[in-house]
Design a protein that fits this description.
The chain contains three helices and no strands. The chain is elongated, with a radius of gyration of 21 Å. The model has no long low-confidence stretch (mean pLDDT 94).
Length: 83
């Protein structure tokens, strides 16, 4: 896939970090540091989603556990919504 240029605004300390990685030879460019960080976050997000789906499937296999989890989640939503 062809990379596309974008413009982003980052915190100064994060830019310092990325530039230090380039200066030390740990990274080819600031763009590569940002690209790697986004790739790592995407991988973490995919892993978390897969783990969540697996947990839901395990819970569905046990109706009692599923119902307990459903009630707890409903109560947490109440609390989060001020209830």
């Amino acid at each position: 896939m062809r990379k596309r240029p974008i413009t982003v605004t980052v915190d100064p300390n994060l830019l310092d970090y990325a530039e230090a990685k380039v200066a030390s030879g740990e990274a080819k460019s600031v763009s590569s540091v940002v690209n790697d960080a986004l790739a790592q976050q995407a991988a973490r997000d995919r892993a978390a989603t897969a783990a969540w789906r697996k947990a839901v499937e395990r819970a569905k296999a046990d109706p009692e556990a599923y119902e307990l989890g459903r009630r707890r989640a409903a109560r947490l939503m109440e609390i989060l919504n001020g209830g």
